[in-house]
Amino acid sequence: MQFSIISRILGILLMLFSITMLVPLFVSFFYHDNAHMAFIISFVIAFTSGLAIWLPVRQERHDLRHRDGFLITALFWLVLGLYGAIPLVLVETPNLSFTNAVFESVSGLTTTGATVISGLDALPRSILYYRQQLQWLGGIGIIVIAVAILPMLGIGGMQLYRAETPGPVKDNKLTPRITETAKWLFFIYSMLTTACALSYWAAGMSLFDAITHSFSTVAIGGFSTHDASMGYFDNPLIMMIAIVFMFVSGINFALHYVAWRNIKIWHYFADSETTFYFFMMLLCGTATFIALIITDTLSFSDALLHGTFQVVSIATTTGFATQDFAHWPNFLPYWLIFFGFIGGCAGSTGGGMKAIRVLLIFKQGVHEIRQLIHPNATIPVKLKKHPVSNRVMIAVWSFFSAYVFVFMGILMLLLMTGMDYLTAFSATAATINNLGPGLGEVAAHYNNIGDFAKWVLCFSMLLGRLEIFTLLVLLTPEFWRQ
């Protein structure tokens, strides 16, 4: 383990993160909301800490090894989650405890969107902006790590079909090429955010709301500056814009990279995961629309608009709301939550198990049925006529088994706190899938649950964002042996 290199990168990371706190500081000065001291102190603490970590090892220059990559990837969210909580602790409104501040910070950076805050409309503008900025920073961090780093460590959804994916996902070791990849991904991410903000502004949002909501839309985070979320605007055009950008942000950013470099879009239609992702959205949306009409919950036009919005929001694990879907009739709340398990595509800002894994599990099930009918035949699992290797299928099932056991463990811990089953199940699903809103006591916010449960759910959010194995591997004794 090269702790000097890890310290150097972590120090740089903290200093860069501290600089981002200057933006909400300027917002505080602009709106005169009296929250500026919280950001000044936070900047000093974060920058000084980063400088102290970086200075002793600033001359170290070595290539990163696999173990270093695992630790840095985990520290990215763990350390920034803790330092990101400092302004939320220091500011007078909303007067959060340390636990609540860490929960809010981790939720923002992992783009989960679960919140412990109510009364958003009365918060200082700088705090509202800061929450949205956390999600935006977490979103670009997710993309770079998911597309450029996790595949090189041998894990993550992108690893499953790296050889078949055009673009920047081909290297087997951590090299300076990550810098080039990150630059292009950041550019595409920024362009999508800008386009989303301008669209919201043109549709009727204030400039402040347009910018902040574009952050959480493209990051698939779900934080809003209003308690009523997107329902606050009551604007069909804004909802349709959100649907488009949530859907696009849930697609593999490596495909966006290729589209930008080659000025072509044909590869979207040729990609098995994107096709499956679209089909699942269509299936979920159609069933939701029919259920809303049959139960007379909404009119035809409202069912089409609100139903589609909630399906895309929940299925991409964004978590925006235009209506209280937790009180929709029959199976609909559970239906939407279960589609959140699928989530977005690998290499996107979406959470969940990732569409590529669910697609391969489905294909494996079909394969086993066919193999029973033709026991002597050799029937490979295929993606677009290309056989999928046994190594990839083993990786998929390993992830799924770990996911199930981790889910059960977190669920049991929450039930041990006295939480009812509906709340515990939905809170686990909402955090491990980086979805945000749940059912029961956590349908609106997470403030009413105990501190121990919040720390468990922070761990759950990190597990979901780090694709489980990245964090679990740090808990094994073998990882720390020389």
Structure characterization notes:
With 482 residues, the chain is mainly α. The protein is 63% helix and 1% strand. It has 21 helices and 2 strands. The protein has helices at 3-20, 22-31, 36-54, 66-83, 86-90, 98-109, 125-149, 177-203, 207-218, 236-249, 253-262, 266-270, 272-294, 300-315, 332-340, 355-373, 390-416, 421-432, 451-465, 469-472, 477-480, and strands at 382-383, 386-387. A two-stranded antiparallel ribbon has the order 1-2. A hairpin with a 2-residue loop joins strand 1 (382-383) and strand 2. It is globular, with a radius of gyration of 22 Å.
Produce a short descriptive summary.
The chain has 482 residues and is mainly alpha-helical. The chain is built from 21 helices and two strands.
Summarize the helix and strand pattern as letters. HHHHHHHHHHHHHHHHEEHHHHH
Report the uncertain regions: 158-175
Strand residue content: under 5%
* Termini Cα gap: 7 Å
Write down the oligomeric state: single chain
Q: What's the helix count?
A: 21
Strand order of the largest sheet: 1-2
Query: Over all CA atoms, what is the radius of gyration?
Result: 22 Å
Reported for the largest beta sheet, the result is: 2 strands, antiparallel
Q: Name the structural class.
A: mainly alpha
Determine the fraction of residues in helical runs and give it as a percent range: 55-70%
- What is the overall shape? globular
Number of strands: 2
Mean pLDDT, to the nearest integer, reads: 88
